[in-house]
Amino acid sequence: QVDDTDEYKEEFGWFNSVKLKFYLDVHIYTRPQDSKLNDLFYDCDIGDADYSYHVKSNDWRVRALVAMNGAYLPRLARDPDARVRREVVDWVTRRHEKGYGDDDFYQGYPKQRALMFKRFIPLSLNLGDISYIDAMVTDEDEWVRYSIARLGITRHIEALIDDPSDYVRMAVAHNGQEHHLQHLINDPSWKVLKLIACNQNATLEQLHTVAHNTKQSVVFIDLIHRGVFFDFFVENSKNSRVKTLAARLGHCHEYLSRDKDYFVRLVVARHTTDISILNRLANDEDYSVRASVVEHTTDIDILNRLVNDKAGTVSSAAKSSLAHLANRSDTSTPVDAS
Fold first, then answer.
1. Are 135 and 89 in contact (CB under 8 A)?
2. DSSP H or E segment with residue 151
3. Measuring CA to CA, how many Å separate 42 from each of 50, 84, 312?
4. Helix (H) or strand (E) holding 311
5. What is the DSSP code (8-state) at residue 282?
6. How much is the pTM?
7. How far apart are the C-alpha atoms of 4 and 133, rounded to whole Å?
């Protein structure tokens, strides 16, 4: 019979936070309400860490503990259990990376993948002999190959650039140089194209190619942040984030001022200086759009019209703006010194 603790054993069972002094805060505090969790850490107690003995254990969790401590890595790189081999590569990564930016790009098990990692801080590596890692680039396990690509070593990237896994190619696109990105520029996965868009090594020409190779709004957003914009980003997108970002940056105000999403029209009202657009938005069906027009224009004709607006907040704001403009005009009148 399977009980609730089996899930925890699968996810946490090979960690022993006391004996190995491993940084497990994230894992431990994930389920602080579970009283059985800490006891499960001791299911794999390896005593005083006699690695030469425990590396031969029949329990994959014990062998994984050995790998997590950086012992017998060449041997464990050939372990029959993929979960042990994952720990071999993860140890190399943890041991040599200086840190990440705000968004790590792979957390936990495959179902927990997070795809945003633009602010990644490159690894600082002094690996020495890692021939055992070199031999793992053809590993059958996706996670193992992914973690190797994540290291960013050129020979590994080149070996994994055509990997069948989208996530492995994503890591390649993230760490690749210009020629690697060119190889992936027509990749069928939008996730890979997104990572090319985020890679600072991508050329302007490559960014333009990505723009024309995808219809994904999330990729458009990254391209806009990189300074690349085409009108079809908003014309072919139903995503309000793309449209509001474009409006904030001054793109397609005429087109976006007619958008069915009131918030897109509101953002246009905030950022446009086109009087004809403001005139049209002053008649918008949504009072918040009209209020935004009042807040961001000094056009007397528009403000005079909105003084009589049916929404009290808009009318009051228009009167206040006109009074402010009148006062400013009075104070700017030159005084006759004679």
1. no
2. helix 142-151
3. 16, 18, 67
4. none
5. T
6. 0.69
7. 36
Q: Which two tokens stand for residue 257?
A: 């001022």
Place of tokens 């792979």: 106
The predicted-structure confidence for 264-283, as pLDDT tens digits, reads as follows 999 999 999 999 999 999 99
Both tokens assigned to 279: 């005139």
CB 268 within 8 A of CB 247: yes
Alpha carbons within 13 angstroms on the beta-carbon side of residue 188 total 5
| Plot region of 21 (φ>0 → left; ψ -120 to 50 → alpha; else → beta) | left
Mean pLDDT of 245-251: 94
Helix H or strand E encompassing 20: none
Token code pair at residue 29: 């505090």
**Distance separating alpha carbons of residues 268 and 256, to the nearest angstrom:** 7
pLDDT at 334 over 70: no
- For 328, residues 6+ apart whose C-beta sits below 8 A from its C-beta are none
pLDDT in tens, 281-304: 999 999 999 999 999 999 999 999
**Contact (CB, 8 A) for 56 and 26:** no
DSSP state of 70: T
